[in-house]
Every structure is written in structure tokens, then in C-alpha cells.
Amino acid sequence: VESFDQCFRCGACSGVCPVKKNTKVFDPRRIIHFLLLGLKEKVLNEILWYCSQCGSCVPVSPMEVKPKEVIWALRNYMLENGLIDLERLFEL
Predict the structure, then answer these.
(1) pLDDT tens string 50-65
(2) pLDDT value at position 43?
């Protein structure tokens, strides 16, 4: 995923995220922030599957960051590397 390193953490993505509005544990800005800090292990968990992939976050980013695509790529990374159990996802 390109361009997520352009994020300056303005919070626009979190402000429009319908999931963020309904749960405190999911925050697209925080996911991007941890990645920028090199803390990938902090975001590689089942919370990535809270994202509905609605795309609300994409058009509001002033730096054209695409949190939806970042989250999708992280999900795929976890699945490809056996970091999440599919049965666990169905329990969410």
C-alpha cells in the first residue's frame, strides 16, 4: 500500500468512520499512527476485522492516505502468515 506514510494524523478518517463512532477499540488513525512508528505488532490483531471496508475514510484524507487499503493489506498479511485463525474471526 502506497502513500500511508504521507499521513499527518489529522483524524479526518476517524471522524467519519462509522465503526469508530460505535466502538472505542477501533480507530483508523491509530492504526496508521502505529505503522508509521514502526509498531506493526500493535495493530496485527482481530481489531482489523472491525473495519467494515465502507471506504468513508478514503475521500476525506487531505494527503490521499487510504486507511481502508492499509487495513485490507494488514488483514491479508495476517492471513498469509498464519497470524490469525479463521475460526477466531467468526467468533467476533
Answers:
(1) 999 999 999 999 999 9
(2) 96
User: What is the H or E stretch that residue 91 is in?
Assistant: helix 86-91
Q: What is the DSSP letter of 3?
A: S
Cell triple for 66: 487510504
Q: Counting beta carbons within 10 angstroms of the beta carbon of residue 69, is it exposed (0 to 12), middle (13 to 18) or buried (19 or more)?
A: middle
Taking the C-alpha atoms of residue 61 and residue 51, their distance in angstroms, rounded to an integer, is: 17
Report the percent of the chain where pLDDT is more than 90: 83
Angle (nearest 5°) at CA 52 between 76 and 81: 15
